[in-house]
Write a structure and sequence with these properties.
It holds the Pfam family PK_Tyr_Ser-Thr. The protein is an alpha+beta fold. The chain contains 19 helices and 30 strands.
């Protein structure tokens, strides 16, 4: 044996003698034994010098150094006795045939030891503790890694580089021939050279590997050499026999065997192809079955009967298959998302006939959501109006129902007023009045001109779409309610959007057409001020835009919150007329608000007044006609026409204070139930 791998002989002898005599070993004797062995400074690896008659430690000896615990081998430098290990930090413990590392109560079961890789694996879910904290062990195992499924200790023989370690041959650990020294961040460890295997820490521990004996290593003639091998192809006329691992000549081949092998191969090929076709057919059958179940669950049969039997259906919506809509939206890819509403996500799709459509996918799979979906299909199938989004059809074969609308390209009125689009396109005063009139016309149609009166219940700027010509389209009828002609109100669960929600409806749960009028009044204020329906004041409180608008109207400071572009393009009488219309729509009591038909008429008169002013200004600028009428006379004419139409003009007493949202909800308690 080389001097590098000497065990502490005196300590070993003392320990063995003490064990045989029943007396504990002498601490002084142990100290002498340790002192006789040169040790790396801070390395933790010890070896006895080969001098005198001191017996050299042989790691291959079975007694007194046991090299296994249960079925697990324990290679040097690890050991169960201090005298048999490379150092105390490689000391293990064998308890109940389980190999443990550490000192109770902080112990872990060793699963495997890899000498070539310098890695020790432990079960990190030890019942004895999750972190080794024993002082004598913690410093040595400070680099345990418990991030994976097993604890890993990437150990090193000594805290030195290979270059430094080789300078001291007495303590250099890589003593076996055909061994290598490998540097790592915590020191160095040893491994056998390529083509050799075994223990590099003992002399002659690295032995040649017979590569030719390894299965599937060489499909030809194999010759083994020390540290390597040579593989040559089988000679011509012979083939490799994997069972015998030798080359055999033609007499080993048999036509019958070849035919059998070929037949088996073709048979397996047909079997695999048949199995694939069967699985595909079975999957298609299961998909059709699941889609039929979804169709029935989503009340598809009911909807079909409704559309066939309802005489009020204005057009025949198509029931699309799920496959059609998946192709149209690239399997509902996230890049096709147009927006997310209160009742679902909207995707852009292209049908097989090249029509561009918007496909709305319901958000929640609940029965009330499915009822709202069927409700929206039933309502939209009865509506034909240029300012209401057109329904092309629906799909009921998916887990969540799908609606297919006409595609509206320019987003929503909310985006135009408050979003990024507001910076690239400026909505003129005339276009603002036109859009307001179109929305009022659509709501008036729903309330009075449709075959069955329909209350939208979620009127807001985000539900007003704009096409290429910025023509408005009212959308999202998921919360709408249709009522019989002899009814004027219906009791429902409150639905809507804060900032647009009718306070009377919120308090009484009685939905009327005046609830849509209130929400439309908020949209008029949005258009006039370019502010969002819920604003934050200087105290960080949320305030209702409608109430703040009424406060400024009461104080006579309406021009302070009017958008600068509106103030520049419109005259004062037109702004006052718009503000007056918004004020009567925002009255707390629904009976004091006008009907949408009256609102539509008043907007028509306001638009006519703006058109006439523009014409007069054009004539005056060209020097053709008389000067435009004064603002006061124009206002008086319009107000007289409106009064004859039965619409009242607000007074200062009708305005209300500006509340926070919390104060506003409290103020609604005065309303009668």
């Amino acid at each position: 044996m080389g001097p590098v791998l000497l065990c502490l002989a005196i300590a070993a002898a003392t320990a063995v003698c003490a064990a045989s005599s029943g007396a504990p070993p002498s601490p002084d004797a142990a100290a002498v034994a340790v002192g006789s062995c040169p040790t790396y400074s801070g390395s933790g690896y010890s070896s006895a010098s080969d001098g005198g008659n001191q017996e050299e430690y042989d790691p291959n000896k079975e007694n007194p150094c046991k090299r296994s615990c249960g079925s697990m081998p324990i290679p040097f430098p690890f050991a169960l006795l201090s005298a048999c290990s490379g150092s105390n930090r490689f000391l293990l413990n064998c308890t109940s045939n389980k190999t443990l590392i550490g000192i109770p109560p902080a112990q872990y079961q060793v699963i495997n030891i890899s000498l070539d890789d310098g890695v020790l694996f432990v079960n990190k879910h030890s019942n004895l503790g999750d972190i080794i904290t024993t002082p004598t062990v913690a410093n040595e195992l400070h680099d345990f890694d418990f991030s994976g499924s097993q604890g890993i200790w990437r150990w090193a023989v000594a805290n030195q580089t290979c270059h430094t370690a080789r300078t001291d041959q007495l303590s250099y650990a890589c003593v076996s021939n055909n061994s290598l020294c490998v540097d790592r961040s915590t020191g160095y460890h040893c491994k056998c050279s390529l083509g050799y295997g075994g223990n590099a820490y003992i002399e002659d521990g690295c032995e040649d590997i017979d590569e030719c004996s390894l299965p599937n290593f060489c499909n030809g003639n194999c010759q083994n050499f020390l540290g390597s091998y040579r593989c040559s192809h089988c000679p011509r006329g012979s083939i490799f026999d994997p069972a015998k691992r030798v080359c055999i000549y033609g007499h080993g081949l048999h036509p019958a065997g070849l035919l059998i092998g070929l037949s088996c191969g073709i048979g397996v090929l047909f079997l695999v192809v048949g199995l694939i076709l069967f699985v595909r057919r079975w999957r298609r059958h299961m998909q059709r079955k699941i889609r039929r179940e979804y169709f029935q669950k989503n009340k598809g049969l009911l909807l079909e009967q409704l559309m066939l039997s309802d005489e009020n259906v204005a057009h025949d919506p198509k029931i699309f298959s799920l496959e059609e809509l998946e192709k149209a939206t690239d399997n509902f890819h996230s890049t096709r998302i147009l927006g997310c509403g209160g009742h679902g996500t909207v995707y852009k799709g292209i049908l097989l006939d090249q029509r561009v459509v918007a496909i709305k996918k319901s958000r929640i799979v609940e029965q009330n959501e499915i009822d709202q979906f069927i409700n929206e299909v039933a309502i939209l199938s009865q509506i034909v109006h240029r300012n209401v989004v057109k329904l092309f059809g629906c799909c009921l074969e998916s887990k969540v129902p799908l609606l297919v609308y006409e595609f509206i390209s320019n987003g929503t009125l909310y985006d135009l007023l408050h979003g990024e689009q507001s910076t690239t396109f400026s909505l003129t005063w005339e276009d603002s009045i036109r859009i307001s009139l179109e929305v009022a016309s659509a709501l008036s149609y729903l309330h009075s001109a449709a075959s069955i009166p329909i209350f939208h219940r979620d009127v807001k700027s985000a539900n007003i779409l704009l096409n290429d010509n910025y023509t408005s389209k009212v959308s999202d009828f998921g919360a709408s309610r249709s009522i019989s002609i002899d009814e004027t109100r219906v009791v429902t669960i409150v639905q809507g959007t804060f900032g647009y929600l009718d306070p009377e409806y919120f308090h009484t749960c009685q939905l009327t057409e005046k609830s849509d009028v209130y929400s439309f009044g908020v949209i008029l204020v949005e258009i006039l001020t370019r502010k969002k329906p819920i604003i934050v004041n200087c105290f960080g409180e949320n305030q209702n835009l409608g109430h703040c608008f009424l406060q400024t109207l009461q104080h006579g400071t309406i021009m302070e919150i009017v958008d600068p572009q509106i103030a520049k393009e419109a005259n004062e009488s037109e702004i006052n007329e718009m503000a007056s219309l918004a004020e009567i729509c925002l009255r707390i009591r629904g009976e004091e608000r006008p009907k949408m038909k009256e609102v539509e008429l008043r907007l028509q008169l306001l638009r006519a007044m703006i058109t006439e002013r523009s014409r007069q200004e054009l004539l005056r600028n060209n020097g053709i006609g008389p000067s435009v009428q004064s603002n006061s006379s124009t206002t008086s004419v319009t107000r007289s026409v409106v009064l004859r139409a039965g619409i009242g003009i607000s007074t200062d007493q009708d305005a209300t204070r500006c509340y926070t949202m919390e104060q506003e909800l409290v103020s609604w308690t005065d309303l009668p139930r």
